[in-house]
Amino acid sequence: MKAYLIVTLTVHDEAMFAQYRRQVGDTAAPFGGQFLAAGGKATVLEGQWEHPGTVVVEFPSRESAERWYDSAAYQKIIGLRLKSTRGSLAILDGV
């Protein structure tokens, strides 16, 4: 079953986040990660959307997404995202 990595974020250091953005795709690809949406305009129809940035990445399975997150390649760059943004990251099982 496919799984989706959902990230909502507010960027407070554009230069540092740009370094992360340049590298993250290469870390996800070996695990089947495919970026479906990143940053585009979001229209909130109900409730509050805390962060202006949203990223959706599709993985072949939850296990693939978890292996990517724990991988040495991703752990090497995760600090760039954590230091340059504020937000949330979750894995959602597909249907």
Description:
Helix 1 (14-28) runs antiparallel to helix 3 (72-84). The chain has three helices and four strands. The protein has a four-stranded antiparallel β-sheet with strand order 2-3-1-4. The chain has helices spanning 14-28, 62-70, 72-84; strands spanning 3-11, 34-38, 53-59, 85-93. The protein has 95 residues and is of the alpha+beta class.
Structure, briefly:
The protein is α+β, with helices and mostly antiparallel strands. Helix content is 39%, strand content 32%.
The outline comes out as globular
Average pLDDT: 96
Distance between the termini: 7 Å
Output the strand order for the largest sheet.
2-3-1-4
Order of helices and strands: EHEEHHE
SS-based class: alpha+beta
- Count of distinct strands: 4
User: Given the structure, what is the number of helices?
Assistant: 3
User: Uncertain regions: pLDDT < 50 for 5+ in a row?
Assistant: none
- How does the major sheet shape up? 4 strands, antiparallel
- Determine Rg (CA atoms, Å): 13 Å
